Amino acid sequence: MGLDISHDAWHGAYSSFMRYRQKLAEVMGLPPLDLMEGYYSEGNNNPMVLLNYRYPKGDELDVSHLRRIFKQMPIKWECLKPNPIHELLCHSDCDGYINWKACGKIADELEKLLPLLDEDGAGHIGNYKEKTEKFIKGLRLAHSKKEKLKFH
Which pTM value belongs to this model? Predict the structure, then answer.
């Protein structure tokens, strides 16, 4: 069980795919994905939950500034400089597809990141650069065949 993306682009755990996308966002200079629209949660994963529990009145730590910041969450994708990789970063990790027309553009942008990805991601990722090269091959194949890159 895990995530399979068509055209042999990805096979591995959902958690590995999340770590992979977090790494892409990091090397692109984007905010942490956990703060982005589609990822940010008002539930238990919200950093304010811990702060409000530990410092309910803010008397031990002035958290009022942080509370104002977190009221503005999540960060909207549209406020960032557009990049084709955003479609990959905010895509569902369990279903759907990326249109073949977008695949070529995403592959082009991922190629620009390759020099920044030469480290080990462990587990199902292995070397980030090699995993990205494989993903690029899958994107290029889908684009050349004019087929959707399918997530399942």
Answer: 0.85
Residue 100 lies in a domain: yes
What is the number of structural domains in the chain? 1
55 is a domain residue: no
Torsions phi, psi for 66 (to 5 deg): -65, -40
Q: Which residue has the tokens 């994107």?
A: 139
pLDDT, mean of each 10-residue run, the chain (152 residues): 92 93 96 88 66 62 70 88 96 92 98 94 90 98 98 94
Considering the domain boundaries, does residue 62 fall inside one?
Answer: no
What domain range includes position 87?
A: 3-30+82-150
Amino acid at site 48: M
Q: For residue 73, with 0-12 CB atoms within 10 Å meaning exposed, 13-18 middle and 19 or more buried, which class applies?
A: middle
Q: Tokens for 149?
A: 């890159």
